[in-house]
Write a structure and sequence with these properties.
With about 290 residues, the chain is α/β, with parallel strands linked by helices. The chain has two domains: about 10-30 and about 80-290, 3-Layer(aba) Sandwich (Rossmann fold); about 40-75, no CATH class. The protein is about 35% helix and about 25% strand. The longest helix has 21 residues, at about 240-260.
Length: about 290
């Protein structure tokens, strides 16, 4: 089972983050757009006469001083954002240094889940490898964070990646709105572009987080080596000289650039995070630069 621990001290740095309004408003059933419903929001909506049992903290005493009648303030109930996080748990996510790609994905998912739940948003999380689990959610509040951490700690890498099945289940559950975060290495993921298109078909914003390890690009490899396809297990012996390595790295860079360009379309964002990156910096700095968080 993948080792994963979320340091509670990290929460202090994440405590100041919030999802941006243009991301939140993609979900017609949640977000920060005006709901015109009374609730505990910060924006004033209306007054109504005081009735026994009302919270006296909501009494407008300035109005009482003018009219000699007791009224309570009604604030708008902000709609909540739906955040769905899909995590790739295929075999290729099981390696990396100093942490595996899966552990980095777990940390990112936990951090984003905390930011969402701290602001009253709802979080749904599911993992996809050879099979797609039922996931967990919707989660809210402190109890939701604890449940999310337990779920993430139960994940392990194995099998192949079936992103298409994960998107099918997401859409069937009508969770393909709001913000959809897909955390994967996106290597050998069949039909990844079509899956992302279908994922955002209902109007949601899709954030593709590509987690990579330097060895994915061939760093540190040279000479006669034996490679094993982490998805299929097939073994291949290759002589990797500098020319061959340069050709592989050029093909790798071209594929990543092509995928990044695709993710730059309407309602799609792309972020890459390395296993050696500080995940807090990725959440706080990289996602803010992509206008997802502030």
């Amino acid at each position: 089972m993948a080792a994963f621990a979320f340091n509670p001290n990290d929460l202090q740095r994440l405590n100041r983050l919030v999802f941006l309004p243009h991301v939140r408003s993609m979900d017609p059933e949640s977000g920060t757009r005006r709901s015109h419903r009374a609730g505990d929001g910060n924006d004033f909506l209306d007054f109504r006469p005081y009735t026994p049992g009302d919270d006296v903290r909501k009494v407008d005493w300035n109005l009482y001083a003018r009219l000699r009648q007791v009224f309570v303030r009604l604030n708008e109930s902000p709609r909540r954002l739906s955040v769905s996080v899909l995590i790739d748990t295929s075999r290729s996510m099981g390696f990396g240094a100093p942490v595996s790609k899966l552990e980095q994905a777990q940390r990112l998912a936990c951090a984003l889940g905390f930011v969402a739940m701290r602001n009253g948003d709802r979080v749904f999380t599911a993992a996809f490898g050879s099979a797609v689990d039922r996931g967990i959610g919707p989660l809210t509040g402190a109890r939701g964070l604890a449940a999310l951490m337990r779920y993430l700690q139960s994940l392990d890498a194995g099998g192949q990646s079936d992103l298409d099945a994960a998107v099918v289940r997401l859409r069937a559950a009508r969770r393909d709105r709001g913000l959809i975060v897909i955390i994967s290495d996106f290597l050998n993921v069949t039909g990844r572009e079509n899956a992302l298109l279908r994922c955002g078909a209902a109007g949601g914003t899709v954030l593709a987080v590509q987690v990579l390890d330097p060895i994915d690009r061939g760093e540190g490899l040279e000479g006669r080596i034996r490679l094993r396809d982490s998805e299929t297990g097939r073994m291949v012996d290759v002589d990797l000289d500098r020319v061959a390595l340069a050709e592989y790295q050029a093909a790798f860079d071209h594929d990543r650039a092509k995928f990044q360009t695709f993710c730059g379309g309407a309602k799609r964002q792309y972020v890459t995070v390395a296993t050696r990156d500080n995940y807090l910096a990725a959440v706080c700095d990289v996602l803010r630069s992509k206008a997802v968080l502030r």
